[in-house]
Design a protein that fits this description.
The complex is a heterodimer of chains A (about 500) and B (about 300).
Chain A lengths: L1 E3 L5 E2 L5 E2 L1 H13 L3 E10 L2 E9 L3 E8 L2 E3 L1 H5 L4 H11 L2 E3 L42 E6 L11 E7 L2 E8 L7 H7 L5 H6 L6 H16 L5 H29 L3 H22 L8 E2 L2 E2 L5 H27 L1 H7 L7 H7 L3 H6 L6 H4 L20 H24 L21 E8 L4 E8 L5 E7 L2 H11 L8 H8 L4 H4 L1
Helix pairs in contact in A: 7-8, 7-14, 7-16, 8-9, 9-14
Chain B lengths: L1 H15 L2 H13 L9 H11 L10 H19 L15 H22 L3 H32 L4 H6 L13 H16 L18 H4 L5 H25 L9 H25 L8 H24 L1
The chains are: A alpha+beta (about 500), B mainly alpha (about 300).
Chain lengths: ~500, ~300
């Protein structure tokens, strides 16, 4: 295995290509020894298919192998971390992970190779075929199907519950309703449009995904980022985190019918979106981050606006957090609801807020820092019992941490930086290269992996949203829980549907 | 004369019934730092729904349409027997309170079968929850009737508040009514789909109780159900409010009406305050909540027995 660095270009020829058996053995061993998967995907090379894996413990490693139509399933032999990754490979390229215990499609689309569909589906038909669901049988067992169309304006996803009375025995989550073909699209557009598409991967994480995309382009185009621009990007990512975490705490409060914090947090979330507006001209930070820097230089005025607003909001946020976390009726709902044990979290490879709430202290900002994160203090979480309360508390701790981080960044000497134009740049990518970028988005580890051919054209743009790791965590959290607690558990994970569907 | 008064107070009550839930919304909005919807929002909602058409699933039958009719009729019926503002009700007979409680049960039965008729898993879940929790709430209500019978010697709503020996705090065993008021308030929250038992504002079907059962009703049908729900909540709120007047206080009808609606508004305001200050209970804790209300009333009954021993 080759050790690589976050956001550093390597030649594709450097990636160790091993035999299928060795690949299988090394990955199994790595995952058994506290290793996790960052990326696991297939890409076509000449006439053969290659399986590429990016792994992490305290370092990042890369490894690949060639495959035929079938490869032995790692889910079966090395654990459930590989489950969704292998199903994705099977769906995207028609490669069968032999022996996979629940080989089912993820997003319902035809594969990109000319090979027949692994699942026996015909995508010409309106309803493309097999929808198998895990079933529980018995006199008092009943099945509840929720979605894909939900009340309100939430995204589409189908949840199939197997219940005995109010108790959930099993939950199966079926997504894919928002599959837009983002990865294919990214491989076909002119390079200067990549960032615009990356911003649309998941609308609530536009900064996180765009940053990951830009860092990859910078590595492949050999662009340098000025210190001032880096500060600005870090602030933007933290503002996105703040807006979303605060919104989530409000939504959690609303879900247990405790209205005052829901209303207050809703307003404060808006304040942070407005700060992004001040920073970038867009409430979701779209159009801010550009390969090589940012589209607008952050002036003294913007710094002052952000610093003042944070000074004003900090006591308000702490006060509302206090209101929420001292209400005993709220704690009674949050505590011991939707628990994911550390063992399960590790087996599933949870990341971000959900992983840390279960005691997996992995934070990209600490392990593989990019931008200014190397200079900022790290965060440690106190409540890690894996329940809704832990996920809420981790969010609260991250909110305080982010406020401090922004204060520290604003207190720095202002560094000169120039806005970077997009027009007139053609972003020629280095040929035969590979780059992997990781960033801690507000949900967790975002990773983009770009591979180029010998002409400098993209042969694969692989995106992994943290939700890809965490959806199975939600399903586990519901085991033996009350079905009436599902919305609360779901909100405590608050995963992305479109980030998963791509 | 008294019949005219009774008719007039009934008409007044019916006209005001949709106003009160608006008060709850205003109180909740106040605690959330918001302006909230207009006070007359429920009138607008009813008008909006009445102007719409109802949609019926092809798989539902006439049972589905019976739900709203019974739901509203039973609640309206209850108001005919209620001594509004401590004045003689239109109808009254010995045992009418038991009939009314069973009218509420009949209402529930038809709401439940209408929900089951849709064959939706959400509505089935809501129906199961409603049936279970209502069954526990009934224990409190009937225990309360035992207590009232001991205090007042009748089983008639009219006699409780407009009879010879009305129930009140300053009566011989009035202190016991404090327990009843708290118990009845708790049951009111449970029976009328309020926090901490149910959340009337949620859009999350899996957590709903009452709302889940009426998901498929629309237009005038939904308006009928809503009106029935307003009347039922008013019935309970009026019950609590009626217990709060001292018996010695004799007022002319106008002042009595003013005092009565003042107390009703107070009860609704307290509902709003409770809803702003508490989160919903976990579903498995609802039976404990309801049995607590039963325990309060049961305790009051024991206390009356002790007095007899003395």
């Amino acid at each position: 295995m080759l050790k690589i660095n976050n956001g550093e270009r390597i030649d594709r020829s450097q990636i160790p290509r091993v035999s299928s058996e060795l690949f299988h053995r090394q990955l199994s061993q790595f995952v058994r020894n506290n290793g996790f998967i960052v990326q696991f995907f297939a890409y076509p090379e000449d006439k053969q298919m290659v399986l590429l894996a990016v792994l992490r413990n305290s370092d990042l490693f890369i490894l690949e192998t060639t495959v035929g139509r079938e490869f032995p399933s790692l889910t079966l032999n090395a654990g459930p971390q590989f489950n969704l990754f292998e199903r994705e490979v099977a769906e995207q390229y028609g490669l069968r992970p032999a022996g996979h215990p629940w080989l089912k499609m993820l997003r319902y689309h035809a594969n990109k190779s000319d090979k027949p569909d692994v699942f026996g589906n015909n995508y010409e038909e309106e309803i493309p075929g097999n929808y198998p669901y895990f079933q529980v049988q018995g006199e008092s067992v009943h099945e509840v199907a929720v979605g894909p169309v939900h009340a309100g304006i939430i995204e589409p996803g189908h949840f199939r519950f197997q219940c005995a009375g109010e108790e959930v025995l099993h939950l199966e989550i079926q997504l894919g309703y928002q599959h837009r073909g983002v990865e294919e699209l990214l491989q076909t557009v002119p390079h200067k449009r990549l960032i615009t598409i990356a911003e649309g991967i998941a609308g609530d994480t536009s900064i996180g995904h765009n940053l990951s995309c830009c860092q990859a382009l910078e590595a492949l185009c050999g662009l340098e980022v000025a210190g001032g621009a880096s500060t600005q990007r870090t602030i933007a990512l933290e503002l996105e985190r703040l807006a979303n975490h605060i919104g989530d705490l409000g939504a959690l409060s609303g879900d247990v019918a405790f209205n005052p914090p829901a209303a207050y947090f809703g307003r404060i979330r808006g304040e942070f979106l407005n700060l992004l507006l001040a920073l970038s001209g867009n409430r979701f930070g779209k159009g801010l981050i550009r390969p090589g820097g940012t589209a607008f230089a952050m002036g003294q005025e913007a710094r002052q606006v952000i610093a003042n607003k944070i000074k004003e909001l900090r006591p308000e946020i702490l006060h509302v957090c206090d209101l929420l976390f001292t209400a005993h009726t709220v704690l009674a709902r949050f505590e011991r609801t939707g628990t994911v044990t550390r063992e399960h979290a590790q087996a599933l490879g949870l990341v971000g807020v959900c992983g840390r709430a279960s005691g997996l202290d992995y934070d990209v900002r600490e392990f593989f820092p990019t931008e200014c994160y190397g200079d900022l203090p790290t965060i440690s979480n106190k409540v890690t019992s894996g329940d809704v309360l832990s996920r809420a508390m981790v969010r609260q701790e991250e909110i305080v941490h982010s406020l401090n981080a922004i204060d520290l960044l604003l207190a720095r000497e202002e560094e000169p930086c120039q806005p970077v134009p997009v027009e007139g740049t053609d972003y020629a990518l280095a040929p035969s290269s590979c780059v992997v970028t990781l960033n801690e988005g507000w949900r967790g580890e975002i990773s983009h992996c770009l591979l180029t051919d010998d002409q400098g054209q993209l042969i694969r743009y692989k995106i992994k949203d943290p939700s890809f790791h965490n959806w199975p965590g939600l399903a586990m959290a519901l085991r033996n829980q009350e079905i009436s607690d599902f919305p609360l558990c779901n909100k405590s994970f608050n995963l992305s549907y479109c980030g998963f569907d791509l | 004369m008294s019949v005219i008064l009774s008719v007039f107070s009934l008409v007044l009550a019916l006209a005001l019934v949709p106003l009160f839930p608006g008060i709850i919304l205003k109180v909740k909005a106040f605690f959330a730092g918001k302006k909230g919807p207009p006070l007359f929002i429920k009138y607008y909602t009813l008008l909006k729904l009445l102007r719409k058409g109802s949609v019926y699933s092809t798989s539902s039958t006439f049972v589905f349409r019976l739900g709203p009719i019974f739901s509203c009729a039973a609640a309206l019926m209850a108001l005919l027997f209620f001594p509004l503002a401590w004045m003689q009700p239109l109808f009254s007979f010995q045992g009418d309170i038991i009939v009314l409680l069973y009218f509420f049960a009949l209402r529930r039965f038809f709401t439940i079968v209408a929900a089951l008729d849709t064959a939706s898993p959400f509505e089935g879940m809501g129906a199961a929850r409603e049936a279970f929790f209502a069954f526990l709430a009934e224990a409190t209500l009937f225990a309360m009737l035992i207590l009232f019978f001991r205090m007042n010697g009748t089983l008639s709503l009219g006699e409780y508040f407009a009879g010879q020996t009305p129930l009140s705090f300053d009566g011989s065993r009035g202190a016991l009514l404090v327990l009843v008021v708290v118990g009845l308030f708790m049951v009111m929250l449970a029976e009328n789909a309020r926090v901490p038992v149910d959340d009337p504002a949620t859009h999350l079907e899996l957590t709903m109780i009452h709302e889940a059962m009426i998901l498929d009703h629309s237009g005038p049908d939904l308006a009928t159900i809503e009106l029935g729900a307003f009347c039922k909540l008013f019935f309970y709120a009026a019950f609590v409010a009626s217990l709060l007047k001292p018996a010695q206080l004799v007022l002319n009808p106008v002042l009595a009406t003013l005092l009565f609606y003042g107390l009703v508004v107070l009860v609704y305001t307290v509902i709003g305050v409770v809803e702003s200050g508490t989160a919903r209970l976990k579903m498995p804790l609802v039976p404990k909540y309801l049995l607590t209300s039963f325990a309060l009333v049961f305790f009051a009954i024991i206390l009356t027995s002790l007095e007899f021993i003395q």
